[in-house]
Specification:
There is one protein chain. The chain contains seven helices and no strands. By secondary structure, the chain is mainly α. The chain is globular. The relative contact order is 0.14. The model is unreliable at 184-205 (pLDDT under 50).
Length: 205
Amino acid sequence: MKTLFKGIAGDFSHWNAKMLCRAGVIAALYVVLTWSLGSLAYGPLQIRPAEALCILPLFFPETVPALYIGCILANLFSGYGVYDIFLGSLATLLAAFLTYLTGKLIKNNVLRVAIGGIFPVLLNAFIIPAVWILAGTPDVVYWYEFGVMILNEALWIYVLGIPLYYAILRLRNKGVSVFMPHAYQTAGQKNSTKNQIDPDISSNE
């Protein structure tokens, strides 16, 4: 447990230029993919393929704040006011962090995607219908919208997110620099860097 906490602290306190750039690109992608769909990206039947990016915390810790900021900016034009800007974005932040933790704890790729994807699906399903109700949207039945949101979010997280996950996995296995993890290491890891394989790119399928 102590090692886990040290790893989390290291991930979020030792940022470099690559991580900053990657975070900026992810936040921008989320915003552009959402804004480009206009009103279709908001509301009970929202079409938001940008949610597939929520699988990325399995690889990159910097995508946790990046997705949060991207969601805040995207929700500025949602039509549901401060409820969506703050509560909707909070769902993304919590889900991204829990997905990140899944990546720290589980190394089997199938389990990582299956379990890591649950958090954005469930948290959005619980929180977003409440946002619509608080914003005064007429004819919203919470548990009906919960079920619709489960299906909607699972579509983006799993149908688009799984191919994205394995595409990045292949690029990491090939050593493509932009997709490799950041350079932070604890003192005990420094002697094993030369032939070290990133645990995120284990061969467990």
